[in-house]
Every structure is written in C-alpha cells, then in structure tokens.
Amino acid sequence: MGTRYLIDSNVIIDFFNGKLPSAGRQLLSGTEPVISIITYIELFSSNNIAMEEYQQLRRFADMTTIHPVNLSIAAETITIRKKYKIKLPDAVIAATAIVHNFTLITRNLSDFKMIDNLKSINPYEV
C-alpha cells in the first residue's frame, strides 16, 4: 500500500481558492480525501463563507472519509499536548495522522514539525 494522507483545512481551502501550485494540486488529485473531524469543523465554522465555496466544501465533505475522535486518538492527543504544548485542534489532527499512519498534508509545517512520529508534507514544496 502506498502513502496515505490526512489533509489539513488550510490545504483544502487553498485548493478550492486556486492557490495551490500545480504539483500540490496533483498531489491532492491523486489522493483519497481523508480528514479529521477537527478539519471538518474548521471548514464549516466561518461566518464569512460564500455560498459557492460552501457548496464546494459540502460536495468535498460528502465524498471524504472523516475520522472521528476515538479513545486511541484521544490518548495520543493527550500525549502530544503534554509533550509539546500545542493547540488542541492541531494536537487532534496530529494524533489522527499518527494513529492511522497517515502523512499530514499541511502548509503549516511549523505547527507540527516538533512532533515525533508525525510525517508531514507541504503541498507548496512538492
């Protein structure tokens, strides 16, 4: 089995806003869409989302595997939070990637670079 990816919200938003470079778009196009429940929440929490963007995100979410928080992810989140003192949403996303052996696709590598056992890739640098 090849590399499996977990997609961060900033990458999804950049994809739909046409901001990703072609190599990043190709990476996402060849990837089964998988996100954390946190990413799902982040995508739909803005009050400033245009109807067209909302509809695109709805269609994307409908074809996406969304991983909920279970006890394994909660335990890994606790470990990450105690060791690295990062924000809870980022810790849940990182824990989801670690528990399910995903490589995280994010443009915010600085938020995650210190976490042991987390593989990540920036779609702007592929």
State the strand order across the main sheet. 1-4-5
Biggest pleated-sheet summary: 3 strands, parallel
Number of strands: 5
How many structural domains in the coordinates? 1
Evaluate the radius of gyration. 14 Å
Structural class: mainly alpha
What is the number of helical segments per DSSP (H or I, 4+ residues)?
Answer: 7
Percent of residues in beta strands: 5-15%
Q: Remind me, CATH topology? A: Rossmann fold
The percent of residues in helical segments reads 40-55%
CATH C-level class: Alpha Beta
Q: Note poorly predicted spans.
A: none
Distance between the ends: 20 Å
What is the residue-mean pLDDT, rounded to a whole number?
93
H/E element order: EHHEHHEHHEHE
Query: For the record, what is the CATH homologous superfamily label?
Result: 5'-nuclease
CATH architectural type: 3-Layer(aba) Sandwich
**Shape category:** globular
What is the gist of this entry?
Helices cover about 50% and strands about 10% of the residues. It has about 130 residues and is mainly α. Strands 1-4-5 form a 3-stranded parallel beta sheet. Strands 2-3 form a two-stranded parallel sheet.
Structure, explained:
With 126 residues, this protein is mainly alpha-helical. The chain has a single domain, classed as Rossmann fold (3-Layer(aba) Sandwich), CATH 3.40.50. The chain is 52% helix and 12% strand. It contains 7 helices and 5 strands; from the N terminus they run E-H-H-E-H-H-E-H-H-E-H-E. It has helices at 9-16, 22-29, 37-44, 51-62, 71-84, 88-99, 109-112; strands at residues 5-7, 34-36, 65-67, 103-105, 119-121. The mean pLDDT is 93.
